[in-house]
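batch_manifest entry 22 of 60
target: ABC transporter substrate-binding protein
source organism: Acidiphilium acidophilum
requested by: lab member K.T.
priority: normal
notes from requester: please return tokens only, no post-processing; we will run our own comparison against the previous entry in this batch. if the run fails, retry once and flag.
--- input ---
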Amino acid sequence: MRKTALAALILSTVITTVTTTPAWAKPSVVIGYENNGADPWMVSQAQHLFQKTMPANVQLKFFDSGPAAMSALASNSLQFMCGLGVPPFVAAISQGVPLGIIFNQERYTSAAGIVVRPGGGIKTIADLKGKKIAIVEGSQSSFELATFLAEAHIPFSAVHQLNMSPPEMRVAWTTKSIDAAIVWDPVFDALHSMGGKILKTDADLPPDASSYNICIADTQWAKTHPKLVTDFIRALDQGVTFTRTHPHQALALMAKQAGITIATAKTELAGYQIFSAKDQTTPHVLGTPKTVATSATTKTIENTAKTLLKIGRIDKLPPHPANAVLPQYAETAAH
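--- output ---
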């Protein structure tokens, strides 16, 4: 009996050694993210899906805007960044930083745009001339503002722009030091609830020059860690699936994560067009490795770059935009 017990103990130890990887042997993965209001990312975060799905020591790190995350990406202290707008990504790849879009989370519709102070005489885009509008310089708001002003034939320089983070915009709004803001949820929704009038939303932008939240990775790191990238996408996709199949539970998780009411979370989520892993390989999102050059995401990179060059946010266009869109990982994750 002693020999049997000893053999069982040895077998158990061997199995444990083989099947359990010690924490010190796992790679470290840091995932940066922004707070863009209630979306499926929050479900993946709340349910610890990244930690459960990825064989790595996973750490999540918050950034209050895309430009704030770019130095961390450039210094290789982040492996992934989510909730990022397209303009800071375009600015980085135009300088040769090796980054690629691995997952397009969502397209903004009514969850971002221009909100103006009531009683300030701003009824059209043309009325923004000479007014003080808060933006996050180098973020999606620069591109949106430039696009809307161009449509109205108003020079970009005709508007007095104040560079602020989204939380700073809330303070500036309450102190009446700005006339308008171009921002995204949750601050967009907050300013609207404080009496702001919505002048434009991102639903007014075309899909091929639109406002997206994207997840990106260092292209060289992704190439050497393809399974971790695929597992990361699977964790994101699980959040999307849960949101679609259990909407009430998903909204409760989002509300708790964001510190908002379920009603507010429902409004914010309705302002997005959400994309799953399977959606990524359609022409309306990333496309496939063969069709990526004509996908909506690639076209948005190209059109965003042209706008940013025109307004002086970048000094040269990215050389090969399609090379910065990487649908192969989502294609694998979706099967």
